[in-house]
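thread: overnight batch results

M.L. [08:02]
morning all. the overnight job finished for the chain we discussed friday. pasting input first so we're all looking at the same thing
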Amino acid sequence: MSNIDEQIKELKNLTNTSKNVDLAKVLGVSTSTIQTWRYRERIPEDIFTKARQISQNGVIAPPKGFVSLDFYEVAVSAGHGALVVSEEKSSDIVFSEAFIHNEIGVNPNNIFLMPVKGDSMYPTLKNGCLVMVNRVDQFTGDGIYVFRFDGQLMVKRLQFSKHGLNVTSDNTSYKPWELSKEEIMSSDFEVIGEVVWSGQRM
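M.L. [08:03]
and the structure it wrote out:
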């Protein structure tokens, strides 16, 4: 048994599950994410943190018709990037499952929430606003993404170019820049997910 298989087995033991589909549901990820872990031979540490919390506290189900979304206190930067120290989940926020399915159009098991820090995506995303992120492990088309690059966690608008990806801010005070194909393929770059909704104070 490979190391990654042993890690997935450990997750199943912690969450009292036996199938990948059940493990994915309990952890709030898609089954394709588990396949990505196998492919990359790496599971994020926050996944083990969540599994240990489930093992200790059990899973508290939200009211019928609602879904509990993971909320991470660590702020994703909409400026020049903020160094990520940890991504420990602080609490859950409950949303209407129908709203997520019908209005947002994504799988509730595949999304999480986190705050935005900075003004580079203003006026689309204000400083301190909350973003809903749909987990994806690669660029899937022009849009606003949360991604890691060179040890920094950022939220920017990504657009395909013949040289790689254009990285732009909605605030015109910030200059656009580019990620080369080599940088995209390197271990310094990782797409976390696509921003599909935001909430903010007026």
